[in-house]
Amino acid sequence: MAATDITRNTLSVLVQDVDGIISRVAGMFTRRGYSLVSLVSAKTETEGINRITVVVDANELVIEQITKQLNKIVPVLKVVRLEEETTIARGIMLVKVNADISNRPQVVDAANIFRARVVDVAQESVVIEATGTPGKLRALLDVLEPFGIRELIQSGQIALNRGPKTMAPSK
Q1: What letters, b where the CB count within 10 A reaches 16 and e where it falls short, cover 52-67?
Q2: pLDDT digits (tens, 9 = 90+) for 78-99
Q3: Integer-rounded Cα radius of gyration of the chain
Q4: Fewest Cβ atoms nearer than 10 Å: which of 21, 56, 113, 159?
């Protein structure tokens, strides 16, 4: 792959849970002109340490620069680039779909095919919760689109390496 080939990359960043760390990480992307696809922060199994999952479209050179810049931020403990073939990555989506008595069974069947759950039922709509890869979520939306999508929200992606390997902070 050439250095100019832009690909989707997932970085997992362990940070100390301190005020302003998300702003500092996001600010680094803004200052450098890097475009974020998604950024998700959450607590980890270790008290006081959070994991930020960053998804960015970039070439190899830019990913190296991003990694170096992230490592310069003091509360950052570790940065790991996750490889697609050894990573489990998921997003979550809530979608409100038109569904009345006449088409509700078809909407529910569509949700079931994608292993999604109906989490709310109203007289003229249902809310469906789905988790999965971006491709799976897009495919579900494509199936639901003919019914009429009233509202939609998707989270950014979270990811872990497969197998026993962990991302414990360096000592």
Answers
A1: bbbbbebbeebbeebe
A2: 999 999 899 999 999 999 999 9
A3: 19
A4: 113
For β-strands 125-132 and 117-121, DSSP reports them as antiparallel
Q: What six digits make up the tokens of 20?
A: 């302003």
Give Cβ neighbours of residue 37 (< 8 Å, ≥ 6 apart).
Answer: 8, 55, 56, 57, 156, 157
Cβ density class 114-131: b for 16+ within 10 Å, e for less: bebebeeeeeebbbbebb
104-160 pLDDT, tens digit per residue, is 999 999 999 999 999 999 999 999 999 999 999 999 999 999 999 999 999 999 999
Record the pTM. 0.85
The DSSP element (H or E) to which 90 belongs, if any, is strand 87-98
Determine phi and psi for 39, rounding to 5 degrees: -145, 120
* CA distances in angstroms from 138 to 25, 101, 114, 132, listed in the order given: 28, 25, 11, 10
Domains of the chain are: 7-82 (3.30.70.260), 88-158 (3.30.70.1150)
